[in-house]
Design a protein that fits this description.
Elements: H1 2-13, E1 16-24, H2 48-61, E2 65-69, H3 78-83, H4 86-92, E3 99-101, H5 111-118, E4 125-126, E5 130-132, E6 144-149, E7 152-160, H6 162-168, E8 177-179, H7 182-193, E9 199-205, H8 220-223, H9 225-233, E10 239-243, E11 253-255, E12 258-261, E13 269-278, E14 283-293, H10 303-320, E15 323-327, H11 340-350, E16 358-362, E17 373-376, H12 377-383, E18 389-396, H13 397-408, E19 415-417, E20 421-425, E21 431-436, E22 439-440, E23 446-452, H14 453-456, E24 470-477, H15 478-486, E25 491-492, E26 500-502
Parallel strand pairs: 1-2, 2-3, 3-4, 7-9, 9-10, 10-12, 15-25, 16-23, 20-26
Antiparallel strand pairs: 1-13, 5-8, 6-7, 11-12, 13-14, 15-17, 16-19, 18-23, 18-24, 20-21, 21-22
Helix pairs in contact: 11-15
């Protein structure tokens, strides 16, 4: 009789509660709809006005809904670069966000600029492991928050992966601050939140950066390996919403009981994770995830957001609309092979000083294709949205080989290379031969190698540049070098020349 009473009591008190978690990551200032060829060659996708409509629609249909973004909202189309992120933050205020974490590209114009722009946010921004160097003072002092939705108390934590911080940020922009081990601080915040919450959700920017599709694209589990390992090493997180890998999860991953989700970036889709939470068991008992592709022709623009982004477009249009040259063909990026856009940028850098023997551009710096026809200053900035400067380094041939061996490893993509030079490699293994100005590289010969300062400071893992015999930062911004290179040419013919050879 007693057991029956206890069972009846359990049934009366147990309750299954449902929660919907909308999620995005790596918005990269794609405020307007655009073409992503891997989705469609003709139908535009994304844009903040479409995203805002979807979020509002989902929240109106179900009040037990929250929306979280996992970082990298800055750096992409020119609106971000020309306003140093201000246009993005002000527009994000209309997205209906419940929280967002900080990504590496929020630092592209310096950590002080990041702090200035984030003061404009009317939504919570979270980070709990980036500190002023040598202190216990957080750069952005808001590691987590607690919200209640549908009777569920939710702890939201924001972190940045330490590896991703040091691997992908221009070091000049983070002088005086440091990222600390994400696992250590995750344990700390879980311990503080567990007694007062039912669920813990982590919004984190970490892992390996994803790029546009070309050679080297990996499967979902490999791309999100850092998140899988974090969940294994630190129990207690119910959901991880991840950014940085640009890797969508049509089906959520599960690691050590933690649900892991992410999207394919650039506002192309809105993630929708639905969970059922058992109050008696104090755990999620079921979940489903889907990625909603945001087709512009299917969604009506949110009027408030449209008004905001059009305001910012008008603010920068005088600069962005300046024509620079006319291209006879589309300028296209590539991550794991030669690209005609990479050739243009590398050639422009090489032409900037007669001493330069060869110039290289990291493929990940090229962020947006440019269509055939008139190319504007805004197009160039959107293609290379970072304020990187041109650096000349003097290196021995054996050092040059070390640099190209890292490129061959494909951890951060290949190096685009200037004309009259080429190299051959086996993807994921090693470089075979390197030619500079038509001659094979000699180990003891010295060469002037030019590259963006992000790369020469060790960004993307190119640490050998730091051992240069000579190092000259010219102060010339890469986009300006391209403008100078192309000035006076009525037409530019993009080209492929077999500069990068795969074996």
């Amino acid at each position: 009789m007693r057991s029956a009473t206890l069972f009846l009591s359990f049934l009366l008190h147990a309750e299954i509660k449902e929660l919907t978690i909308l999620h995005t990551n790596d918005l990269h200032s794609h405020l307007f709809p655009h073409i992503e060829t891997w989705i469609s060659d003709t139908r535009e996708v994304g844009g903040f006005a479409n995203l805002a409509t979807l979020v509002k629609r989902e929240k109106a249909a179900n009040s037990d809904t929250i929306y979280i973004d996992s970082g990298d909202y800055f750096s992409g189309p020119y609106l971000s670069t020309l306003t140093k992120g201000k246009a993005v933050i002000n527009s994000m205020n209309f997205l209906g966000l419940d929280a967002a974490c900080i990504g590496n590209h929020e630092f592209d114009h310096g950590w002080d600029n990041m702090l200035e722009q984030m003061q404009e946010a009317t939504f919570p921004i979270l980070n709990g492991n980036i500190f002023f160097e040598g202190t216990n003072e957080l750069v952005w002092n808001n590691p987590y928050l607690v919200i209640e939705k549908g009777g569920i108390k939710i702890g939201l934590i924001g972190l940045h992966g330490k590896f991703a911080f040091y691997d992908t940020i221009n070091f000049k922009m983070t002088q005086g601050i440091e990222a600390r081990n994400e696992e250590e601080y995750l344990r700390k915040y879980i311990a503080e939140l567990e007694p007062i919450t039912d669920l813990i959700i982590l919004s984190i920017h970490q892992g390996m950066p994803g790029r546009q599709s070309s050679l080297g694209k990996t499967d979902v589990e490999r791309s999100l390996r850092k998140d899988i390992m974090l969940a294994k090493n630190v129990p207690g997180v119910d959901v991880i919403i991840s950014g940085h890998a640009h890797q969508g999860t049509p089906k959520a991953l599960v690691s050590n009981g933690t649900i892991i989700v992410s999207t394919n970036a650039y506002t192309t889709e809105l993630g929708k994770l639905k969970i059922k939470y058992d109050t008696e068991k104090d755990q999620i008992i079921s979940h489903s995830n889907k990625l909603i592709t945001i087709f512009d022709d299917e969604i009506e623009d949110d009027p408030d957001m449209l008004r905001e982004i059009k305001f910012w477009q008008k603010e920068v249009e005088k600069i962005a609309s300046i024509p620079v040259f006319t291209s006879t063909k589309k300028l296209v990026r590539a991550y794991g092979k030669e690209s005609n856009m990479g050739n243009l940028f590398a050639d422009a850098v090489a032409a900037s000083d007669e001493r330069i023997d060869v110039a290289v551009i990291n493929s990940g710096a090229l962020r947006q294709d440019i269509g055939a026809g008139i190319v504007t200053k805004g197009d160039l900035i959107s293609a290379f949205p970072f304020p990187n400067t041109l650096v000349m380094t003097k290196l021995k041939g054996i050092q040059v080989r070390e640099i190209f061996n890292h490129a061959a490893g494909m951890t951060n993509g290949v190096l685009q290379i200037s004309e009259n030079s080429r190299y051959s490699f086996t993807p994921g293994e090693q470089v075979h031969e390197i030619w500079i100005k038509g001659e094979l590289v000699a180990d003891e010969k010295e060469y002037w190698v030019a590259a963006p300062n992000f790369v020469t400071q060790g960004g993307d893992g190119y640490w050998e540049f730091q051992n240069a015999i000579e190092y000259i930062d010219t102060g010339v911004v890469i986009v300006d070098a391209v403008e100078d290179f192309i000035q006076g040419e009525e037409m530019y013919e993009p080209k492929y020349e077999g500069r990068i050879l795969l074996k």
